[in-house]
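Milestone M4 deliverable, item 7.
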Amino acid sequence: MTANLTSTATFDFVAVLSQAAAAYRGQRGTRPSAEILVTALLQAEKAAKRQRLTYPFESLLGKWQLCFVTGTKKVREGGGIVLGKGLYVPKFIAIHVSFNATSEEDSGRGEIGNQVKFNPVLLKLTGPVQYLGKKNLLAFDFNYMVISLFGRAVYNRAMRSGKLQTEDFYNQPIAKLPFFAFFLVTEDFIAARGRGGGLAFWIRET
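Output delivered:
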């Protein structure tokens, strides 16, 4: 089943997330509280599972700015993991993730770029991705790092084995790789749960 966000069942959490995206950009309104935003994300995740929504890899392509993230913490009794309160990423730290398709033969293969900019320093990591559309699961690995200072690269090299690592990546079991499990993808924002259990909410770079 492909994604459909027009039903009344999804209206409330989509409205909250849309408000958060607009407010974070400074376009209009005020940001929903962290508690309300976490609730909206959890509702979106439940709706995706209930409706068995699937999203094509193409809908993730582009550059996205991290807007909100939750951590996790272990519970002493029983050893379970629960979500942290969550927080909006401070505007003075720009964190972006980008996805690009690299294979015409396999639409689920591509490249991820993750960059953190804290003037005057820019750190960017890149590597391969593999997308399992039936599960909305995007596995990834980073094998190249660039560090720039005042716009000039001061470190630019492969991590571990470079190209060989990329080739080996596609032979690795998904369970051994970091991944994002996407449960909401729109033209304006995306949301996922990471392998560690935390939630992340990105808005499209404009």
